[in-house]
Amino acid sequence: MKIAIMQPYVFPYIGYFQLINAVDKFIFYDDVNYIKRGWINRNRILVNNEEKLFTIPVLQASQNKLINEIALGMDNKWLKDFYSTLEQNYKKAPYYEPTLALIKTIFNQPHKTISELATTSIIHISNHLKLSTVFELSSLNYAETKGMEKADRLIEICKLSNADTYINPSGGKELYNKPYFKTKGIDLFFIENELTPYQQFNDKFVGGLSIIDVLMFNSKTDTHKLLSSYQLI
Q1: Residues spanned by the domain of 220
Q2: How many domains are there within the chain?
Q3: Which pTM does this prediction carry?
Q4: What backbone phi and psi angles, to 5 degrees, belong to 2?
């Protein structure tokens, strides 16, 4: 079994979904420290054909708190403004209507924390794309591993999951050692994401945006092709 373990991000970029697509089980690392000015509560979309950051409001954000302890500060006005931004900038996109409906379904779910909203966004979009990956929460399913050293905790979660392969984003090459994982019976791979260009409003492709942008411009079939654009090393 192949697994990945990753902090939950709200409407992440397609590379996040490539990682989900590469594994049998995906574990949301929701009981680790929150990262301010990271990707947990923000991402980018097209505004006037240029990338623009959107940020989900949170309350009393602190890197001394766990991700699943960070409360949402979002209100109806923020949500109305966000929908308005999407309409103004994506109304003419070929898949605007179904994508907006999906986004509204996600926001209409009851959420108290940024972790809940982020995991909901990822699970709903994965279901929309008919990905077969199983999702779990580290806080719920692997609470006994909390407090272990980073690499050892990942290895222990792999063992508890009966996984023999762990796939990590390529940014972890400096953190995790393949031979060390191998001594524990786990094959470690890193995913190299490929951001294949797709047609937006003009010929100037803006890559690495939120999955929202991908879904606005691509059918499910074409999105599946993009999900397979990665290499394991």
Answers
A1: 2-232
A2: 1
A3: 0.97
A4: -105, 135
